Amino acid sequence: MSNPQFLFRQTSFNGPSLLSDRREKVRRGTVKAQLQQLHETGRYDCFKLQWHPTYDEEYPWPVPKSLFWDSDIAKWIEGACYFLSEDYDPEVDAAIRELVSDIRAAQREDGYLNVYYTVVAPKERWSNIRDMHELYNAGHLIEAAIAHREYYRNDLLMEPIESYVQLLSKVFGPGKDQRHAYPGHPEIELALLRLYKATGDQAAYNLARYFIEERGNATGQDGLLYYDWEEKQRGDPHWLRPNHYPEAGSHWYNQAHVPILEQSSIEGHAVRAMYLLTAVADLLCLDKTGSNPLPESPQWYAALRRLWNNMVDKKMYLTGGIGAMKQWEGFGADYFLPQGTDEGGCYAETCASIGVMMLAERLLEVELNSRYADVMELCLYNGVMTAMNLSGTAFTYINQLASSDKDKSLRCDWFEVSCCPPNLMRLFGSLGGYLWDYGGGNGESFVNVHLYTTAKVDFSIDRHTVTLQQTSNWPWEGRVRFDVQTPPTLKTTIRLRVPGWAKGRFTLEPSCESVKVNETGYVVLHACYVTEHPTFTLQIGGMEPRFVEPHPYTNQNTLAVARGPLIYCVEDADNSWVVDHFKNTAISSSAKITEEKHELDGNPFVLLHLSGSERCLGAWHDKREGTEPGAEVVPSPAAVDIADDVPRDLVFVPYYLRANRGGRGQMRVGLLRKTKDCC
Amino acid sequence: MSNPQFLFRQTSFNGPSLLSDRREKVRRGTVKAQLQQLHETGRYDCFKLQWHPTYDEEYPWPVPKSLFWDSDIAKWIEGACYFLSEDYDPEVDAAIRELVSDIRAAQREDGYLNVYYTVVAPKERWSNIRDMHELYNAGHLIEAAIAHREYYRNDLLMEPIESYVQLLSKVFGPGKDQRHAYPGHPEIELALLRLYKATGDQAAYNLARYFIEERGNATGQDGLLYYDWEEKQRGDPHWLRPNHYPEAGSHWYNQAHVPILEQSSIEGHAVRAMYLLTAVADLLCLDKTGSNPLPESPQWYAALRRLWNNMVDKKMYLTGGIGAMKQWEGFGADYFLPQGTDEGGCYAETCASIGVMMLAERLLEVELNSRYADVMELCLYNGVMTAMNLSGTAFTYINQLASSDKDKSLRCDWFEVSCCPPNLMRLFGSLGGYLWDYGGGNGESFVNVHLYTTAKVDFSIDRHTVTLQQTSNWPWEGRVRFDVQTPPTLKTTIRLRVPGWAKGRFTLEPSCESVKVNETGYVVLHACYVTEHPTFTLQIGGMEPRFVEPHPYTNQNTLAVARGPLIYCVEDADNSWVVDHFKNTAISSSAKITEEKHELDGNPFVLLHLSGSERCLGAWHDKREGTEPGAEVVPSPAAVDIADDVPRDLVFVPYYLRANRGGRGQMRVGLLRKTKDCC
């Protein structure tokens, strides 16, 4: 029961921190700015079911421009509800009430609820489950309804949604007259499982599990894979496919090429993959509670671990970004991780990194292990946080690690396909749920602390209230103070993550000899320690800046600078001499990094200084054009020609701070590694 | 008038050499082996216009499997005619006669001549110029007819072809009732220009020039780009496109996104680009002769140079291979040149490197400059020659620089789309034409020698015969002896290329102080020297092995070994310990390379020895799975961890010799560069 969206309500960010500041900006800036975008783009009124000029516009087959509008509204409602509970706003409240009223009125008599298939193409319902996001939209509506009910304590949105889910349960399933389908863009699976957890609706659980288990069944519908079958029904030639499909029939784009249990590597569209696996992890969480045993659960967990490992070890950027391939917004070959489109690719969509966080959070519940929390924190502070400016009003959809003249490091207020901005809003809204999980019973309780910040959690076990307050200046300092209030009759265990980059270094005050980092990567404080020391301090070591490299097989030959969970970058705003997007800027791992405390618009951060140089291309510069594809290497030169290098004092800022200060949009994370040839 | 297909007849390979050996293998092995393939696959009989089971088979839209059959037959006829003149073979002669008789009988009354659109889809003629290779097939038939007439001295094939060209000239052109089209796969342009040169058919010239000048006209047909217009005619939705199209409407795939004169970089399908630019160069050659002035010829040459330079400097592999992208068999972004598909791509199709040779050969006539001949030689000895085994009976279509488990370094007897094998056959058949160009008049003559081997050329100027014999053991030795016979009344100038890798080093014997490499990269021997020294010897320097590197922006961080025009590779046949396709094998440019004379099946070659090592992945090896995407770099380690490296004695063979000795298909050209971090 520990999904972020449930837990956040018991967590309060009750002091200054980087995370609370980001939440504050979303609450104050993003919620209203996006409401305005919804109004301006026509989304706000779409459930009123009137014709909109966008519906007439040309679009690349088969996805009309308005296809995702339902989900944009739904995500905004969900996110807005999270923030309303903390800070009532009459304008936001009124908007939600109007939207809910529109949604209720938009529902068809049989429970169906989708704008495009009601207004634009009413006869084509369920005709293209693979591409048309019908079930994806339904999923987000379900999530909105859950958040709405939590805040409003009424069923005004839940009622139509429950009735829509009843319709879906009739339409999809293993029965003879049911469609043996599963959504092209997963999302409804995890939404249905949230619904089950919120309401106990067993039909919702069953439908989610059906979607997951049926996926990739090569003979699921009349002896065909469902997507092939529905293509035949539509009369499409089998080579007709969306623009981003690598080729006709490449069902790995949707993770539907084989059943999930048989998938050996993570493939295709990154967001789809993350949402799908999050739901698989949810099934395993529910299996663990015993409420809904999952047959073959060890195999399901093995599949999750296999795909997680493939992703983290071979298909993830240093920033936690995933997806090198722009064409299908997804995973490329193992170790294919160029930093920018001018070097062959880099997509790293915001929603994909949010998806990694969702998956990691569920996996932590399946098996407490710091590897999941490490990656979750990496994504949060880098791949995700970099996608929003400091005021919470401008965004990035794609998060490259290096800019180029064609793809500068710049932000937009909104996007035509605008999944990312409202996704950031609901993520920050529910952020408290990612910090820790907790529970207990039978005279015991526990809190597993995954992320450090300043925040408090209260929860009840056996009618007792446990309160844990953490106070820190994370990620700038590694010191975290804890204050626990737990009744003497309850044995409370607290587990504290030691991040991988700390390499086991930590101190505890008051100290305790028996306390060690265990095999899960957590420091376990048993009830006796907690009872004796209701206030204690954890000092995480290894917070000084360090160099990190991507796997050698990536052929990047770069070094990046990191500090704690933060990955740093260079920008032209600080390094104004740059003209080549730092393509020739080189650093050495033996250089000394110095820290400087800094502030930007009231946001404190640690800036880093480091001496580097600009590579001199030497002979390559003087080469006559069009003569030969390579060049002779004179024995034993420097690979980076040190003698001719121009020294540069480099300034690094956290990657999440990029594109906040104007400039020319030049930015890079991994810099050329300064090496020389050796024998 | 110096296209290889015209010149080769005046050249004889009259002594042992690597090139004459390859030609011999093609003559003895390939011609018959491919004739057998034509029989076995049904191609041989296709002009008999009977139904073939292949016509019923499913295929990816819109290209049926038999679409290219006409061209396979045509290329075989062309190549076979080249060899017949040297070595009569009754079986080959009989086959050509039968095929020509079939082709004559297959022609429609109006001159139309295409198997697919006669047998399979007779009503769809000219309905898809973009994708259906109708004009491509016509082009190859034209080239076959020229070669056929040259050998047979009759018009049995030329007659129907001329009549087909007349039909084409009616159908395509600027007139109100003509189609303002140009072929999706260029080929016919260069074929028509060859036809013009062979027969003086001005209509052929005009049609070729129309195709070239009209290409990319955004409003060419009823205000639309022709391909968009014909799509509308067919009623295709505009997103319907062949599998290899990167996206709908991406006309850069066909080099038709803008007119050629406005193209700033080389894009799209590599073979198409080369065939197209070859024809542009042909137009410039004809402009130079004055027979057919080309308006804006400086702009056309500027476009050719711009695209050539972009290709050679930023989109060509060390082997002369072009095309990193498998999906569209063509060019990727600047400097995107991974060595193998497991590293993100590498196509380097055989026909594309043959196309580079064709283009270079024409450019040499437009402007004598060794850069064109250098690249031509690089392609010949590497990207092209590597595509055929030693016996001339097995081939590669794709020529990666590094194998992987998924794409091993292996050969096939034939391919479903089998453009490459017969293309190799006709290239080797006409190889004499690439060695040199020559001409003269008004008491003068010249020979420009581009490639060194053992061969003789005879040609007549002002009723005088000039004979030049070159004798060498190229590419194993840099010494070339020349014997000239030229009448005393004719002033004969001889220009000898000094390859770029020789860096200007050469000696001439007898020596002559005033002889230097001029700005074109050629040593010019004036008539006085030639008259005085009818026998002389050129010694090209710099033939010892050297290291070469791709451009630093390729992010390859590799070194390759070269010797003269040859690029070398490592194979598991010699380095049997390899298990990882040499992914971790590292070499240093300071290592000593030793040569060893060797032989394989009677083919002498120089084998190279070099000490390298296997990179130890160190900490990466022991890393826990799924923990983080990067790893910390401890200050000042070796980038390649030298301490733990396993030394390896490496054996290198010429890249063209790969995949001739069984083995496990493991091969690599560029090896990791052994470096260490520096400050």
UniProtKB/TrEMBL annotation, chains A, B:
UniProt entry tagged with the keyword Hydrolase: yes
SUPFAM superfamilies in the cross-refs: Six-hairpin glycosidases (SSF48208)
Domain Non-reducing end beta-L-arabinofuranosidase-like GH127 middle: 447-524
UniProt domain Non-reducing end beta-L-arabinofuranosidase-like GH127 C-terminal: residue ranges: 546-669
Keyword Hydrolase: yes
GO MF, one annotated term: hydrolase activity
Top-rank taxon: Eukaryota
Single GO biological process annotation from the record: carbohydrate metabolic process
Keywords: Hydrolase
Domain spans labelled Non-reducing end beta-L-arabinofuranosidase-like GH127 catalytic: 17-431
PANTHER family the record matches: DUF1680 DOMAIN PROTEIN (AFU_ORTHOLOGUE AFUA_1G08910)
Name of the protein: Glycoside hydrolase family 127 protein
Species: Pleurostoma richardsiae
